[in-house]
Amino acid sequence: MSLIDLSAVSFAYGRGRNVLDGIDLKIEAGRNLGIVGESGSGKTTILRLLLGLARPTAGRMTFRGEGLDPGNRAVMRGFRRAVQAVFQDPYSSLDPRQKVFDIVAEPLRSLKIDMDIDDAVAGALASVDLPPDAARRYPHEFSGGQRQRIAIARAIVSRPELVLADEVVSALDLTTRIRIVDLLKTLSERTTLVLVSHDIGFVALLCHDLVILEKGRIVEQGAARDILSAPQHPYTRRLLDSTPRLMDFA
Ligand SMILES: Nc1ncnc2c1ncn2[C@@H]1O[C@H](COP(=O)(O)OP(=O)(O)OP(=O)(O)O)[C@@H](O)[C@H]1O
Ligand SMILES: [Mg+2]
């Protein structure tokens, strides 16, 4: 059974036009999924649905086969516990007034997860290769790459099954990007990743499967290997031609 299943899902902001249209997508545990498309294609909007921050305006979304109905609190609680996210901008996504300890501990507190908070935060910081004393400092004392590690520590502290990552390396220089790719690769041994990026080369380094999104519709989906070696859709070919190949450097 899929972890999350989207079937004929559409979404519109307010009374606007559909920004997602007829999306069919399965997220399987253990298979990292990359969602690739140009700016405005709907990538972040899909992540908002997967995080439960927005609900489909049409179609059906299930978690472990059960409908995500806000009235079903047990399913919603399991869903919220299972999914965490890391966002693009490591400068704005961390509260500057909070110490790293409290930032990383936040999911444990808000989800009321019964874990030893000190141990869990120390473990999460160690997993992202930050020193233990990082917990006592503030975000402004860290570089962009280190801040992204703090955001990743926060996303994994509650041991979610799925981690969503929205353009997590776009704001970083090439060397820092490669280090974060290595870190995500290690983490994906424990958790499934959904990576969103306009850079097909980056997601292909980490993902088994790809979804190619154009103006809110999926134009191609399948094994990353197949899509990279034989892209079927002209839009996919254009994306492949327009991104520098991180693979050439890694
Ligand atoms: N809060 C909002 N209200 C209204 N429209 C929105 C809102 N957020 C996004 N949109 C619109 O939805 C569409 C998809 O936006 P989305 O942010 O999902 O794209 P994206 O693929 O993540 O783009 P980018 O690569 O620039 O981050 C765009 O047309 C955008 O203008
Ligand atoms: Mg986006």
Can you list the strand order of the major beta sheet?
6-7-8-3-9-10
Using only C-alpha atoms, the radius of gyration works out to: 18 Å
Helix fraction, binned, reads: 25-40%
CATH class: Alpha Beta
CATH topology: Rossmann fold
In the residues, how many domains can be counted? 1
Morphology: globular
What are its keywords?
single chain; 250 residues; alpha/beta; Rossmann fold; six-stranded mixed β-sheet; four-stranded antiparallel β-sheet; binds adenosine-5'-triphosphate; binds magnesium ion
How is this fold's topology laid out?
Elements: E1 4-12, E2 18-27, E3 33-37, H1 43-51, E4 58-63, E5 66-67, H2 73-82, E6 83-86, H3 100-110, H4 117-127, H5 144-156, E7 162-166, H6 174-187, E8 192-197, H7 200-206, E9 209-214, E10 217-223, H8 224-229, H9 234-242
Parallel strand pairs: 3-8, 3-9, 6-7, 7-8
Antiparallel strand pairs: 1-2, 1-4, 4-5, 9-10
Bound molecules: adenosine-5'-triphosphate and magnesium ion.
Tell me about this structure.
This protein is of the alpha/beta class and 250 residues long. It has one domain (2-91, 163-248): P-loop containing nucleotide triphosphate hydrolases (Rossmann fold, 3-Layer(aba) Sandwich). Helix content is 36%, strand content 24%. The chain has helices at residues 43-51, 73-82, 100-110, 117-127, 144-156, 174-187, 200-206, 224-229, 234-242; strands at residues 4-12, 18-27, 33-37, 58-63, 66-67, 83-86, 162-166, 192-197, 209-214, 217-223. It starts with a strand and ends in an 8-residue tail after the last helix. The mean pLDDT is 93. It binds adenosine-5'-triphosphate (ATP) and magnesium ion (MG).
